[in-house]
Amino acid sequence: MSKLRFFWEQSWLLLVSSLIFGVLLAMADAALAPRIKRNETEKFTRLAGGMLPEAVRFEPVEPKIAVTASNGKTVEVEVYRGLDEQGRTAGWAFACEGGGFSDKIKLVVGVDGRFEKLAGFGVLSSNETPGFGDKITIPGGFFQKQFVGAPADKLTLVKAGRPEQIDAEIVAITGATVTSQAVVDILNTYVLAIRSALKEQGLLN
Amino acid sequence: MLSKIIVSPAPHISENLTTRRLMADVIIGLAPAVIAAGIFFRYRALAVIGVCVLSCLVSEWVCNRLRHKPNSLGDLSAVVTGLILALSLPPAVPYSIAVIGSVFAIVIVKMLFGGLGSNVFNPAMAARVFLTASFGVAMTTWKVPATVDPTMPEIKPSNVEAVTQATPLAWSKMALKGQAKAEEVNRQIREAFWGNVGGCIGETSAAALLLGGLYLLVRRTITFHIPLAVLLSTGIFALVGWLLKPQVFARPDFHLVSGGLMLGAFFIATDPVTTPLSVRGKWLFGAGVGLLVMLIRVVGEYPEGVMFSVLIMNSLTPLIDRLCHSVPAGGKPNV
Amino acid sequence: MAENQTSVGKSFLAGLWDENPVLRLILGMCPTLAVTTSLQAALTMGASVIFVLICSNLVVSAMRNLLKPHLRILMFTLTIAAFVTIADLFLKAYQPEMSAKLGPYIPLIIVNCIIICRAEACASKNGLLVSLADALGMGLGFTGALTVLAVIRELLATGQIVFTFSRSFTLIRLPDVPLFRMAGMAMPVGAFLTLGLMLGLVKLLTTKRA
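Structure tokens for the assembled complex are given below, as produced in the milestone run.
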């Protein structure tokens, strides 16, 4: 009995304030969570909508598509079908990620309606070397431009070449080969897996 | 007719060995490389060398003035720093970048640490790393030597981010990734030895650097330990790779004559300030540089690793010195 | 516990220069080096630290007479963690770009030594008013040092100062010469160089005056 009393005397402040702070955090989270969720979807639709200008709204494809990433882990990817004003498929968009040079790179990838050509990619988050690897984040930069219209098939990275020629060969950023390779790898992994999964589901012919 | 007898402590026998003489010898040793640079890259290379030397001298003078220290231009060490920095820059480098590098080498790496003798890192190499980190494109844009194609215009593609002129080491990197054959790389050994290839201003001609290095050895400005250790360990590690997979790895003699290895072995890794003092320490230092060079060239992402290797070993120098403590005659090591 | 008779104005001014957390006490080096790649990131970090510092100083000062000495660090950490989490959620909701850019550095304010140092050295020994003044002074001193570092680094690395809300606003744009495009200044090496030179300069100024 005296032990319990000693325990309470010593720690009541800690216990009470834990409770108070817990309630405070729960309130803050409840107040801000919807806005945080909205920010995330807004960023996704802004990036995806920029790549697929005809799409007016995005609908998630059910069920989620399982993709085996290069590290052997299986991730569930939510693929969105972009619909134009007449309700036809204007394109597909999905978020994907993979290991970069210094940290994970998270991308949004857009593909055209028949899943034949890439509509480009946008960077959700990356932490690549300033001045080199972070050139992948420049919208409309020479690196991103190479993907707009490139075949939605296996891409290869080359060190030197003609970036203005849109084909399956992607010219690396000088000084950032690892980052460039990472982007190409992410696209190769996800685009091919999602294409075959969509075909299986009968959403593509 | 001595009117006074002077009492002075030992040493009584002094040699006529001053910093100024040492540095003058290094400058003479670098002369063949400078001449080779003039032949291969014409006035552009000489202009870069001039800009680097001049801005090193000016920065040293300004630093001494600000710190109220006596003028130290006379020891010629700033000239050597400027020369080595310039020789390790690409020939097409903009002059302003050369100036930034020189100021960085002298002000940040040398004078802020206390001037000649107190700097931890080799100033020229530390500056080159900063430039590589800051100006990736300018620092990896190579020009074909004028002797190969005098009409060759400066490389100014519409998109500089994508195009680089391949140096022998870039070829070697491509061979490692299966994009070229090792034979094609080995065919460049002869040209790389004489210097008729793309690369840094003063690193292309192994012959000129070897000549200057031998001069330094003959003059006893440097001892043979570090250069020999660097070349030996680079050669041995390259040999291991070549014996294992000759179709992927270039021959050891290719690795010896290409890139900045000769310049590094004779002129950079022998900098008396930032390298170990004892003979055993020098062997260790040189072997470490060679190992790191081969690791970076073969495993790393950069085609060349001399500057990183020298800097990493520079940072280990105090530890090596402690490891190789010499025992005073008749006593125990004073650790 | 006897109240220390520290004046409010004095404890406010101390944080700005004489006991500036970054430049004199060398505290909070992790965010100082990591987030000063851009002015906007530095200001966001500074504002978050000011917010957490004020809240934790006030709470700690209010409960200072109830603290059990051997449990006090636990209490400090709990208080700080709660307010840092609130700041993090707030940034995620209203400054999503900055929150993504600062990444783990906002949650890491929990282990920022400035805040626990002020709780231990000031708030747990002084009244509410002094603690508040101390939090404001320290927070502003921290933000000021970060601002100077960030302006230097962002200008030398990119040649411009950009603020990004939902769109980007360029405040300053310098000519496109290599001196203002040193990507190395945006890397960790640039942070160490700039901070080192700044500390040297401060030392020079203070020793001359003394």
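The helical segments of chain A are 2-51, 142-145, 177-200. Strands of chain A lie at 57-60, 65-68, 74-77, 79-83, 89-99, 104-112, 118-125, 156-158, 169-171. Further analysis is deferred to the final report.
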